Amino acid sequence: MILDVRDDGFLPAALPAKFEAGTPPIAEIIGLHAAVDYLDGLGMDRVRRHEVALTAYAFRTLTERLGEQLTIHGPSEPASRGGVLSLAIEGVHPHDLSQVLDEHAVCVRPGHHCAKPLMRVLGVGATARASFYVYNDTDDVDALADALAAAADFFSF
C-alpha cells in the first residue's frame, strides 16, 4: 500500500499494490478453489442440463398448480433461460408473497432485483425470484408450488 512514509506525507505504492490493504482473503480463495473443483468434477454441461430440466419441471408444475393467477416473466422455453424464475401471483405483492413462502421454509427474493428499467418494461413494480441450481431437485420445486398455492389461498378474497 505504502512505498514510503515521511513527516510531511507519504508515497503510495504503484497499482494494484496501493489498494491491497491487510491480509489477502486466503480462506475465500481456498473456498473458491474448492467450489471450482467441485463444479469441474460435475461438469458444467451436466449442471446446465440439470438447470434446464428443473426449470422445465418448475414451469409445468407451477402452471398446472396455479394456472392463470401465476405469471412467470421471461422466456417460456427453459433452454432459453437459466435456473431463475421471476414470479408474480395476481393481487399479491412480492414482499407479502415472500413472507408467506418463508413461513413454508421456501426462500425467494422479492423486489426489483436491481433491474428497475426492466421492471418498467414488464409493467411491474417487483417480482419474487426463485433460483434453482445443482443442489435443488424436484422436491424443492414441489415445495415452492405448495407454498405458492398456500399463499394464493391466503391472499384470495
List the helices and strands and how they pair.
Elements: E1 2-6, E2 9-12, H1 26-42, H2 44-66, E3 70-73, E4 84-89, H3 94-103, E5 109-111, H4 116-122, E6 127-131, H5 138-155
Antiparallel strand pairs: 1-2, 3-4, 4-6, 5-6
Helix pairs in contact: 2-5
What's the short version?
With 157 residues, the protein is an alpha+beta fold. Helix content is 48%, strand content 17%.
Description:
The structure is a single chain. The chain contains five helices and six strands. Helix 2 runs parallel beside helix 5 (138-155). It has 157 residues and is of the alpha+beta class. The protein has helices at residues 26-42, 44-66, 94-103, 116-122, 138-155; strands at residues 2-6, 9-12, 70-73, 84-89, 109-111, 127-131. Strands 3-4-6-5 form a four-stranded antiparallel beta sheet, with helices on one face. A two-stranded antiparallel ribbon has the order 1-2. The longest helix has 23 residues, at 44-66. The relative contact order is 0.14.
Q: How would a textbook summarize the main sheet?
A: 4 strands, antiparallel
| Strand-residue proportion | 15-25%
> Which consecutive residue ranges, at least 5 long each, have pLDDT under 50?
none
What Rg, in angstroms, do the CA atoms define?
22 Å
The proportion of residues forming helix, as a percent range, comes to: 40-55%
Bulk shape: elongated
Q: Please list the strands of the largest sheet in the order they lie side by side.
A: 3-4-6-5
- Oligomer designation: single chain
Distance between the termini: 62 Å
Class by SSE composition: alpha+beta
**What pattern of helices and strands is seen along the backbone?**
EEHHEEHEHEH
The number of strands is 6
Total helices: the number is 5
**Which whole number gives the mean pLDDT?**
94
